[in-house]
Known about the structure:
This protein is mainly α. It has a domain at 1-159. The protein is 85% helix and 1% strand.
Amino acid sequence: MVGALEGGAVLVLLSVFFAHMLAPAVAAIRRRVRIGPRQRPISRPVAIVLIYLAVFVPGAIVWRGAKDNAVHWVRVTAPRSVERLFTGGNFEPFERMISRAPISALARRGLVVRLDQTVSYVEQEVRATLNELIAAARYAEWLAVTPILAFVLLTAAPGFQRSTLRVLPHGHLQWRAEEYLRDVNSALAGYVRAQVAAAIIVGFVCVAGFVLIGLQSAVSVGVAAGVLELVPAIGPLTALIVAGSQAGSRLLAVLVFLGSLRIIQDYVIYPRLIRRGMHMSTLAVILTIWLGAALAGAAGVILAIPVAGFLSVSWRHWREYREIERLVRKAPHRDRPGAQLAQETGNGRLIEEEINRETRSGDIS
Length: 365
């Protein structure tokens, strides 16, 4: 049951992600493609269908020819690569480097122990990711739900939002709900922008690094690493397996390169991208991802940042709503006509400005 809920949540998140990626393309097509004597833009559903035809028809043709190779890679090539990665003595150069280091014997033994612990941790994560990848392969057909949900979100969500807002009482509550939905959408859009930016950065860096290392099919493997970056946790480790299966005698260089890139990406670049898009601090991003991994594994890592952004927006709006209610209750005693005007016209922004003035003067903590 828990696994089904996690899988459903991941599918919904992927649909939202896909919808935010499609939205700019839909708007661009509607601006450029016009029909009829009045040159009206095509409808949103028609624009989405055109994009789907342009993307999924060639994709289906490519998948039909590559399906057998992909299945063979997941079930045979990837497990063999993992076995070769951790049983072929690939980490002996690190041990020789430590044995020659100008440090004490005690410090040398400590470094060897640390190396063994790190290798064991990486092996455990890679094997767990491979097992999850193999287990999830049989559910790959469920990914077809993603474009369907994205279509529904792009076509029905605006009307649903308008009808929902009409149900709410007129006044600052309706205005607050509109602002809340706008901020949730902005947070999700910020997450999508951060993920796409991270994928582009990792793709460029991997292509350049693999070319310098001399990896076979460096460009295609680097591009695949960038695309896999869109899926947190599973994507980077899958990229490691893909690169390791192509590395041959350069496996050690690939491991050092990807390990260094992972540290810089996870603790420097990605938190800054999320902070800019979702207004979360670097420490909050790192702790959120760790918490998601501890609670739900790979699915938790995928869902951690969007859920944290949603909760952050919800908490902020709840606090602001409570402050507005407090000011509305206090206003009749101080300035009854002004309070009545704010309530009758639903101009919540007037009350918001009053909150800001009190905040600046120190009246609200």
